[in-house]
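> call design_seq(struct)
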């Protein structure tokens, strides 16, 4: 097995995921670009390779069992192990998310991607992560999932708009992450949640105020933690995010 570190980033064809792939690639990692659309995936891989990154495409729809199983097979064949998994793929479910009028189908769709998708991918990749000397899992959450911030002062600046599918999906993801941390407490896997800040991407119609590179920085730090690094945390650039 090669000494080169290998990472899978889900939803890596654009936005923050792309920049996490680029950042880890610049550190010499081999980067699996998880993406569901072939054209967008190939374009991202080509762009990364042009900048000198050892990137390869991983067809991956996080909502599809067979796609996720095939992605695990592809990585097993290529590398035999996985050193980091960045569960970055996510959706908002659109703007119609007032609790009193939401279409329950929107909540199902968002949870299927943002929560169950993470569980599906993590479980498929765990056997490969367990073959790494220092495995890391990074779950792309959001401070809008912080119940402390949602219930405190601060308004939309710290909590985002009322969004009964998206914000609770990230609270759910945080809670799920802690269950993995508990189950895997006796292993060397470090598992953390990250908030990238308010980043200009397709997700918010490019209304964010940070660049995707800035949004990728803490995720890259958590994917490359030393063995004595934290686990079971929720981090943003400024430090710890309250649950
Ligand atoms: N932007 C922000 O301000 C912000 C703040 C806090 C947290 N986040 C989180 O950061 C993560 C990345 O978001 P972003 O801002 O970079 O948004 P983005 O540019 O819209 O990127 C989202 C990525 O997820 C992928 N994706 C969505 N559903 C998928 C599925 N079923 N299977 C595989 N890939 C899927 C998208 O692929 P397609 O191109 O195929 O759609 C895309 O690559 C998300 O989890 C988001 O919740 C973002």
């Amino acid at each position: 097995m090669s000494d080169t570190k290998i990472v899978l980033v889900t939803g890596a064809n654009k936005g923050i995921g792309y920049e996490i792939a680029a950042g880890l690639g610049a550190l010499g990692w081999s980067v699996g670009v998880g993406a569901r659309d072939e054209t967008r995936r190939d374009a991202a891989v080509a762009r990364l390779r042009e900048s000198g990154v050892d990137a390869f495409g991983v067809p991956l729809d996080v909502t599809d069992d067979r796609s996720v199983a095939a992605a695990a097979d592809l990585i097993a064949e290529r590398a035999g192990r996985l050193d980091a998994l960045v569960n970055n793929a996510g959706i908002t479910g659109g703007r119609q998310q007032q609790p009193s009028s939401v279409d329950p189908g929107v909540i199902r769709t968002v949870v299927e991607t943002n929560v169950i998708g993470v569980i599906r991918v993590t479980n498929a990749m765990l056997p490969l992560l367990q073959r790494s000397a220092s495995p890391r899992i990074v779950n792309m959450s959001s401070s809008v999932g912080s119940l402390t911030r949602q219930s405190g002062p601060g308004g939309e600046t710290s909590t985002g708009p009322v969004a009964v599918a998206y914000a609770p999906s990230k609270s759910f993801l945080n809670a799920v992450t802690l269950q993995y941390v508990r189950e895997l407490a006796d292993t060397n896997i470090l598992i953390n949640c990250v908030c990238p800040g308010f980043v200009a991407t397709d997700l918010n119609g490019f209304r964010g105020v940070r660049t995707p590179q800035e949004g990728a920085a803490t995720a890259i730090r958590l994917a490359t933690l030393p063995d004595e690094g934290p686990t079971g945390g929720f981090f943003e650039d400024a430090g710890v995010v309250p649950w």
